[in-house]
Structure formats: C-alpha cells, structure tokens
Amino acid sequence: MTVRLAGLLPGELDEQQAEVYRAITGGRRSAGPQSFALADEDGRLRGPFNAMLLSPPVGLAVQAVGSAVRYDSALTDRVREMAILAVAAHWGSAFEREAHEAVGRGCGLSERDMAALRAGSVPESADPAERTALRITHALLRAGELTGEEYDEAVLAVGARGVFELTTLVGYYGMLALQLRVFAGEKPAAGQATALPQPQTPS
C-alpha cells in the first residue's frame, strides 16, 4: 500500500481545513463510545477523512452527507451497517470493512454475520426487511440500477425514503472506497470491484 497523501497535523491546517477537521472530529462521529479512531495518536485524520482537507468546501459537504447517512437515516442500524459492509466487500476496502465491522458489532452483528457479508452473502440472521435491503444493495452494486420489481420490493420493505437513503449510502461509501484507493493506496482483493466496461468506439 502506497499512501500518496501525507496526513496533516492539526497545527498545520488553515482555517477552512480546520473547519472540516472540527466537523469530523467534534461532530456526532466523536460522541459516545468510539468504534474506530477518526485520527491517529498525533491528531492526523485517518482513512478517507484526510483527503477531505484537500478541498474544504467539498470536504465539508461530503462529511455532512456521511454524517446524515450514519445518524439521520430512517434505515435501522443493522440495515445500515450490513449495507455499508456489502459496499466494503464489493470494493475490497479494508478501512471501511474494519471500521464498520467494529460498528456492526455494536449493532448486534455476529462474527458469522460479518463473514457472510465479507463473502457477498446475506447473513442467515437477517430478517425479511434486512434481506430485501441487502438484495437491493447488491443489485445497485452489481447493475447500478433497480428493476421495477426490485424497486417495488424495496419500497415495501424500507419505504421510498429508505430506498433513497440506501442508494445514497451505496454511492457515498463507494466514493469513499474510490478515494481510499487513490489517496491511501488501498488495493482491492482479486475479483472485487472490477472495472466498468469501456465505452465502445463507433465503427
């Protein structure tokens, strides 16, 4: 793993960067028990958060979307964490997997559940709504869309708001996984998150 972007110490940040830093480390992510560290022992942001300092206006908006997905969603905690772990498995993101397996344990996910999610499967313990949410998540990851039948099934299981939030979650954590590849040097496992087909050149 080659880290391309050095972490910045809190004292090295300009005021705009410091605003992003405070929003991440002093917001709801920092309240209550911490499942994973947001910064290292010297205060440098970890994982995808460090790259958000490159563009404070965009970084501030991105972290706000992440906060809303985590803390203001109508999805249950278990559905949210299972969906995040499905995205992490698809992209082969070690940081997302380790961070959200830690969160998942606090939501009642067992080691067996998380092993199933790492393998791209639906845990046996999932209830009907959780199974539907995961099927929809896998469809979004696989095809980038939902069939009419899948959409109707999703709305029945989690509501139209839940479908919107689930698609946002899949896009948000996929974006973070991409940024972790570009800036933190994460590499996908073999067979994970294969490249999209290249557009065909008209003959």
From TrEMBL:
Annotated Carboxymuconolactone decarboxylase-like domain residues: 57-138
A UniProt-annotated Pfam family:
CMD
One annotated GO molecular function is: peroxiredoxin activity
InterPro entries this protein is in?
A: AhpD-like (IPR029032), CMD-like (IPR003779)
Official protein name in the record: Carboxymuconolactone decarboxylase family protein
